[in-house]
């Protein structure tokens, strides 16, 4: 079998046109377009190429409902080569997620839910007995390769009468395991001004552009002091669009006030993939294009920024010698209506569309609606 093939005539985000030679699953050569020799496997036709997209917040455990989906359905078929499950599983089921991940084409990493039951129920922190420290330490020891942090969902419907207490416990578990936290924010209580000061450098706040009452921006669009202070401490901002957590108005206020873009993630699962407002990573990225972000900033938010947080720089670059981990996508000039989680619409004249990925030495076409 010929293991050397050429991805011909693809374009970096900078506009530079290149050929990429892939040999035994690795990038063997990068040449100016048209110059690489080898069996032509796929004609890039001028599509953009980036390192494989990373989605920092998804729900990839198929057995759970509503917050679950098939790994490759929300991974490689969306242009996403690495996905990070955002606490679908706690210690009880993380082994089953690892088993599913070993059968998938998409790379899978995970935040371990501090509640042992994970998203078996959607009020997983309403009973503090579900936070089992010994089980967490055991899971981290066993699945340390896959686990990149701990997840705590800190909003009213999740914590119930537990209030802010689960976040204090999460903080001490973070110290004990050395793992950062991903904290989901949403409706109060707890008040966002009580939540944010507990986040430290490297922790992630997901859903930071949500449009709920208890969000991170004042009515006039100014960022709350707890947000600007968290950014100064090195807290990482993650979009986590989801069914209910992305507001165009808030995103516009964030941009207007110079709040930087760290990672763009979907918080995708079956229902918001099929019925919206998420649909796909491409669709979420198109929303940031419509907000006026440059293509290179948007691509960095699903490649190098995420790879840097993960401490895996090779996932966020295209370099000879690395495993071939690539996403091909186009920028289509066409009119489209984009909808946020509040039902607000924006009309755009250009959309991002994932075309395919190269991973595991294989080219896989994307099968999604734009
Ligand atoms: Zn989520």
Number of strands: 15
Q: Rg, please?
A: 20 Å
Which bin fits the share of residues in helices? Answer: 10-25%
Strand content: 25-35%
CATH class categorisation of the largest domain: Alpha Beta
Q: State the major sheet.
A: 7 strands, parallel
* Alpha carbon gap, first and last residue: 35 Å
Helix-strand topology string: EEEEEEHEHEHEHHEHEHEHHHHHEEE
- Structural class by sheet pairing and helices: alpha/beta
Give the CATH superfamily of the largest domain. Answer: Metal-dependent hydrolases
Q: Name the average pLDDT.
A: 96
Pfam families: EF_0837-like_N
InterPro entries: Deacetylase_Atu3266-like (IPR020043), EF_0837-like (IPR047601), Metal-dep_hydrolase_composite (IPR011059), Metal_Hydrolase (IPR032466)
Keywords: Hydrolase
GO molecular function: hydrolase activity
Structure characterization notes:
The chain has 2 domains: about 5-50 and about 320-365, Roll (Urease, subunit C, domain 1); about 50-310, TIM Barrel (Alpha-Beta Barrel), CATH 3.20.20. It is of the alpha/beta class. The two termini are about 35 Å apart. A 7-stranded parallel sheet has the order 6-7-8-9-10-11-12, with helices on both faces. It has 12 helices and 15 strands. Zinc ion (ZN) binds near residues 59, 86, 240 and 242. Zinc ion binds near residues 57, 59, 86, 242 and 267. GO terms for molecular function: hydrolase activity. This is Deacetylase. It is an enzyme of class 3 (hydrolase).
